[in-house]
Automatic annotation (TrEMBL):
Name of the protein described by the UniProt record: Peptidase S1 domain-containing protein
Transmembrane segments: 301-319
GO molecular function: serine-type endopeptidase activity
Gene3D superfamilies hit by this protein: Trypsin-like serine proteases
Keyword Magnesium belongs to the record: no
Record has Protease as a keyword: yes
A biological process term (GO) from this entry: proteolysis
SMART domains per the UniProt record, alphabetical: Tryp_SPc
Domain Peptidase S1: 30-281
Family of the protein in this entry: Belongs to the peptidase S1 family. CLIP subfamily.
Amino acid sequence: MFKTITSMTYSCSSNSTCGCSLDSAIVTKIIGGEEAMKNSWGWAVSIRIHNNHICGGSLISSELVLTAAHCIVLVKTISSLSVTAGSKYLSMINQQRSVSQAFIPFNYDSTTYTNDIAIILLSSPFDMNDRSLAFICLPPSIENYPPDDMTVIAIGWGVLSTTEKTSSDTLQQVTLKTISNGISACHISVYNENVQICAGVQGGGKGMKKEKILIFILDNICCFQLDTCRGDSGGPLMMFSNQRWYIVGITSYGNGCASPYYPGIYTRASVYRKDIGCFLKNETSCIKKKFLVRNSVSSCSMNYLLISLFFILIKIINYQ
């Protein structure tokens, strides 16, 4: 059993260039999550289609956003996308930018959601003189990072229950634990433990049986047909270390809405640390080797679909 903590205040280093927001994060272990404090997650952004929230994301620079590939891959036109930052309320826009390009790994698998990561390039940088905005730190490039049984925080604007139809207007947060893939619920949910993280909480909330695994609200998005707990995908799974916050996972998928039997699955960010570095250093050749580019003049994801069919064909040939 995990120890119950009434509340925890995470105080950041004032000298850090990333992973520290204007105000300290105060979180509890309330099952199902709670409303986030104002200015506690400065890197949290809302990704929108025609100004309607579809996914979360994380600021890693003034013009780069880290999110999930499944949030982007079947968007009809990139020009319909925008990103807002600097407010915990979806209805209160502080800063908003259109999207110039989106990058999806060539090896993203829409069936297993492996390599479910995307990087968005904004049309113009956010104004970082606004202290309500901040960058999240990138994790070290270490195998199987983070370790099992680590305390992590997930945030998002997803719907709060299966009966809800719209995203939460206020940013929500929840305390989770990274779970070993040896746990049966993780073993049956994770397709590739090298690139995916299993996380949830042990114990039950209101109306839940004890010793079950309860996930934070997660979702799958495909051609705008959203799962029952939409809106959280692409958001960060974060760990506090060395007095700053690191993104260790990207919300990818779950089974239903807050299911007590299945943990949440997150893309393991540490695996892509070097790839993300290509964008931060603007190394074009490095980016072109691994990522498909979607830009504002692209039509639906025909290029991506053709590439996916190509790799499926290669797999079939190799199998034979």
